[in-house]
Amino acid sequence: MSQDSQHGKWCVSSSEEDDNDELPPSKTPPKPPQTPPSNHNSPSPVIDPSPPEVKLEPSPPPALVIGSEARQQAAKNQINPVKYESSPSLAGKRKTDSVDGAGWALSDSDDDDDLKKTTQAAPPAKKAPSPKRRKVVNERPPSPHGRVYYIDEPDDFFESTLPCQDDMFRFYLNKVTGLDKKYNNGALHIKDILSPLFGTIKESVQFNYCFDIAWMVQQYPPEFRDRPVLIVHGDKREAKARLVQQAQPFPHIRFCQAKLDIAFGTHHTKMMLLWYEEGFRVIILTSNMIRADWYQKTQGMWMSPLFPKLPKGSSDTCGESPTFFKRDLLEYLASYRAPELEDWIQRIKEHDLSETRVYLVGSTPGRYVGSDMDRWGHLRLRKLLYEHTSSIPGENQWPVVGQFSSIGSMGVDQTKWLAGEFQRTLTTLGASSLRPNTPIHLLYPSVEDVRTSLEGYPAGGSLPYSIQTAQKQLWLHSYFHRWQADATGRTHAMPHIKTYMRASPDFTELAWFLVTSSNLSKAAWGALEKNNTQVMVRSYELGVLYLPSAFNMKTFTIRKNPFPFSSSSSGFPVPFDLPPTPYAPKDQPWIWNVPYSQAPDTHGNVWVPS
Ligand code: K8G
């Protein structure tokens, strides 16, 4: 338990100490051999999904550090890429006992003690990068090719156009640099989201995990650039000090530190609250506030309609949606118990959110019992599926599809969490669910997917599945399917989006669809404890659930050709190809902290975490 505070302890658990065998997805650094032991009382360091650090102009001097070990390693590899041709010299760089990742013979024999050792050996997160990484270049995203090789955004990349107004799903992808223009049609860059076309920003809140504040400020239109911004984050101690330091040149920026009192919890929630002259808007998304997350990765978002202000004197419960989105958003915000959010809670109460057609599915750290158990995480999803979907003939043939960018520790076999409580949630359809044999397809990039991606191996810096976690759950990998998204043009834009859905056996229909910040982890989704009388959630997460009943439908049709992506002319725009392709025997899941030097990536480089 963190010593910072006892807030957020919803009930006292005896289980914390014996629960430390869970490593959240991404806590493991890429350089285990070099890592000093961390303070035992500190949560394990968090990864910081920073891009290669090439600072924007103007940048707050002194430039600050954003970047975990691995993502810094990714950055280093980009600035000083290790060329495939030069690989003979790698022999000296590589750990003598390490085998190339492409051929990792994952051993089954490790026990949970190794995880504890790994956890304790984790280094502090967000260390300072070497000074040369702070070089100011210009106002472009970092190039994975190094400074001399850029793919420019096309001239019209930053031209904002309003997505069509009849878009009933309001589900969007990000624009990806380097794609054929048609694939960015209907997609949104952060500059689009903040553009005056969507409203005249008075104030905003940015909830996120990782921030490059100077870059973030540049994404606001010049005319709104000095309007107050509240940053809601989970950083503590040195990381918090660095974050605050980043904002020194920007007096309009204020902070709200989310309480994280349970070990290994992180503030993953990615949300924008935009208060306009014209009303109010909510964006729930998957991208960090850093350039690399908006460059060549696949990200998703839900953008609310413009919520008008309620007439003066309306009661607080006015403006509710059929999905109780207003109540649930207020409850999520209240869970921070943060004075900084009080004005925002009041503002939201004064707006009409009744047009919302999605359900909010959040996680907020705590140990919940009784009627609180289904407020957050997968039990919240289960309750919504129980109450607002109904059984389908032959539903046990309807596969569940889960797609994510990081993976936590799920125990020695599937019965421990995945095929037990989590699958029970994902297979819930109304009150009488027929569960046996429901296929479950998990989508996570293979080494080959990453190698051939637009970013190349450095894309793996945002896919922080560690060897220490992977080698203890080889059973999981038999569920894995490739990242393929030819229909959206995003096969080579690695996913940072996370989605979960239930599809018909022929993949033409959906029983429900969720876009969220939650990766495949117990920390994000929660895990039952104490003979199923308590659920423990470590992290803050947020997503939106699409249920056909809220659209007066029985199921959603899956759109065959989702272009332009945003227009819902017919059916739901699933962002990747269906049916998913299983890993072939030669395929391996991407593991970020092992070397890959057998084959060069799209930029002729290899991956040698050192
Ligand atoms: C994030 C991710 C991710 C994974 C792990 C962590 C943060 C993120 N982490 O979404 O891929 O803090 O452990 O980008 O928020």
Question: What is the secondary structure topology, with strand pairs?
Answer:
Elements: H1 69-79, H2 90-93, H3 112-120, E1 171-173, H4 190-193, E2 201-207, H5 213-219, E3 229-233, H6 237-246, E4 253-257, E5 271-276, E6 279-285, E7 297-298, E8 300-303, H7 325-334, H8 342-349, E9 359-363, E10 366-369, H9 377-388, E11 400-403, H10 418-426, E12 440-443, H11 447-451, H12 467-470, E13 480-481, E14 494-495, E15 498-503, E16 509-516, H13 522-525, E17 527-529, E18 534-537, E19 541-546, E20 556-557
Parallel strand pairs: 2-3, 3-4, 7-14, 11-12, 12-13
Antiparallel strand pairs: 1-8, 2-5, 5-6, 6-8, 9-19, 10-18, 11-15, 15-16, 16-19, 16-20, 17-18
Helix pairs in contact: 7-8, 9-10
Bound molecules: 4-nitrobenzene-1,2-dicarboxylic acid.
Largest sheet: 8 strands, mixed
Under CATH, the topology of the domain at 360-557 can be stated as: Endonuclease, Chain A
The geometry reads as: globular
Per CATH, the architecture of the domain at 360-557 is: 2-Layer Sandwich
Runs in which pLDDT lies below 50 for 5 or more consecutive residues are: 1-67, 86-99, 102-141, 143-150
CATH H-level superfamily title of the domain at 360-557 = Endonuclease Chain A
Named once each, the bound ligands are:
4-nitrobenzene-1,2-dicarboxylic acid
Please compute the radius of gyration using only Cα atoms.
Answer: 23 Å
- Average pLDDT taken over every residue: 81
Quote the beta fraction: 5-15%
Helix percent reads 10-25%
Q: Cα distance, first to last residue?
A: 31 Å
- Helix and strand content put the structural class at alpha+beta
Number of helices: 13
